[in-house]
Amino acid sequence: MWWRSAICTGAIFGTLVWLIPNVLWLLGWIAGRVFSYRLPYAPFGWTALAFLLTVLGCVMYGHYHGRFVTEVNRVEYAGTDVPAAFDGYKIVHISDLHVDSFEDTAELKKILDKVNEQQADVILFTGDMTTGNMEGIHQHEATLKAMQAREGVVSVMGNHDFFIYDPQYRTTRERCAAADTLTSYERDVLGWTVLRNQSLMLHRGADSIAVAGVDNINGGQGFKTIQKGDLGKAMTGLDGIFTIVMTHDPSHWRAEVLPQSHAQITLSGHTHAAQARLLGWSLANMSFNECDGRYDHDGRMLYVNAGIGCTAPFRIGCPAEITLITLHRK
């Protein structure tokens, strides 16, 4: 049960911060024995208790309330290479559904209803449908199928979508077979377009843009995950076409997308912005150069979505995110 995970998580982090004043007091006590003075414990003990209760309180708040708060972030992308017919084109970017983190379908439905409220031309989902297995997906099937846009939902595969954290899959072959099963489910049951190192053309009148989607690939930051992406294959035949790349891990942007492609927009997720922000600063900055929100480089944009679901049982100062990107022609 997730509430048990929240209590355990709070207890672990709470104990770690509880240790800080206690270790400081112990060092002071040792020094006092050497230099013949007495260091009172009470200020350190009360501080340790305050730290412990604060962390426990934050984690429980993040579990029972924080992970269900949702924000819609609006982003404008303007460029001379945006086709005229796509001026005003609306893209909803979501990521990291982790549907098995929602025990109650109604909570997920509230978030995905907000996705539909944006009346997007297309919904782009940058991976991690589940956390560990397929079991939780079927519970939310009707809610997932109800997600709508004029040109449907397009998705790619994240690291969790290869079931690398599920012990029942022991080999890469078994994990890839499970990923193929998930792909078929998204395509055949949910009606989504799944890009597995492939591209899709979106048309408006005589103009077109491309969406290129790659399987999960790590660019050397954060923790190492499964490497199945093939950017070159996904970009085949797209020279001269305005292109949006969907790649789960944002470190892929600097590692390959910028130096090896012309893609104007890259969309990623994966980091969850560490599911915690302190005064607006994401803890994921400790592992990723680009981990939260918008980044620009010579007119090319990366957007890292903070995700909707959870892998840890809380969100603190880091709401579930729906990103609405509107294209404009300069």
Report on the structure:
This protein starts with a helix and ends with a strand. It has helices at residues 2-35, 42-64, 105-117, 135-139, 141-145, 172-189, 231-234, 251-260, and strands spanning 70-79, 90-94, 122-125, 153-155, 193-194, 198-204, 207-213, 243-246, 265-268, 277-278, 281-282, 293-297, 300-304, 320-329. The chain is elongated and about 85 Å long. Strand 4, helix 6 (172-189) and strand 5 (193-194) form a beta-alpha-beta unit. It has eight helices and 14 strands. A six-stranded mixed sheet has the order 1-14-2-3-4-5, with helices on one face. Helix content is 34%, strand content 21%. With 330 residues, it is an alpha/beta fold. The model has no long low-confidence stretch (mean pLDDT 92).
Highlighted features:
6-stranded mixed beta sheet, 14 strands, alpha/beta, 330 residues
* Rg, Å, rounded: 22 Å
Looking across the biggest beta sheet, what order are the strands in?
A: 1-14-2-3-4-5
Strand residue percentage: 15-25%
SS summary, helix count: 8
Q: What's the rounded overall pLDDT mean? A: 92
Give a short synopsis of this structure.
This protein has eight helices and 14 strands. With 330 residues, it is α/β, with parallel strands linked by helices.
